[in-house]
Design a protein that fits this description.
Layout lengths: L3 E5 L4 H9 L5 E5 L9 H11 L3 E4 L13 H22 L2 E7 L22 H16 L3 E6 L2 E2 L7 H11 L2 E5 L3 E2 L2 E2 H11 L9 E4 L6 E2 H14 L8 E5 L19 H7 L6 H15 L1
Parallel strand pairs: 1-2, 1-3, 3-4, 4-5, 5-10, 6-9, 7-12
Antiparallel strand pairs: 8-11
Helix pairs in contact: 1-6, 2-3, 3-4, 5-7, 7-9
Amino acid sequence: MSQSILLIGSNGQVGKELQQILPSYGDLISVERPIVDLAQPDTLRNVIRSKQPQIIINAAAYTAVDKAESEPELATAINATAPLIIAQESQKLGAFLIHISTDYVFDGNGCSPYQETDVTNPLSIYGKTKLAGEEAIRETCNHHLILRTAWVYGTFGKSNFVKTMLRLGSERQELRVIADQIGSPTWAQDIGAVIAQMIPQLTLEISGTYHYTNSGVASWYDFAVAIFEEAQQLGFPLKIERIVPITTAEYPTSARRPAYSVLACGKISALVGTYPPHWRQRLRQMLKNLKIGQ
């Protein structure tokens, strides 16, 4: 008998990818605002109780990192309270909960890839609320899988680093990009694919926290350079001539970000039997897909 999968946040970058992949793994129920509003707990409870899924995937979040500094209540409602409610309902149903979290739960003071067991210390409201959501799930729902990822960009959606760079690169000759924050750019399609790979293995034994990003590391500056090199080869319209590396201090933002937030992905690689593909290779494929879709 096919299992039912409830996908919350189906219109986000990862949610859109999951919408395409998951029908092969079960009966998919996709929900998005206004049917489910993560800031309105009753809408969450009502949907979960009426659908009674066997697997719940929460791909929704408040992700406006800087805006969260001035909207802590809303960020808390979506990133901390909503996961608690989903976890409570999952536990009652005996459903397995898959929840997406972030590298921003770490302070970035390290210099080697963060393991799942490393101490968290978020610097921003966004990071703190995402960590609170993780903790609520761990304390409430026995069958859970928390997937931390980082630097997500996707073919879908308007607001991600790749699409912003392409837009600015078509308008300007020079861009200044931060070179002292290090992480792993990750294609949303790969996050969707690894979640799908794990669905047949969902048992109490694998419950816990996992890290998944594309392999390799980069600064935002490195990432921008790569975007323009690949986009140029593919014939994207660009005016850009110079990319200037700058420090975090030269580009002040409301929220503090980790300087180094590379995640170690050995645990999930052992589980699914493959290591994540390199970020540059996946960037190239995403841009090809974007070009075809234009």
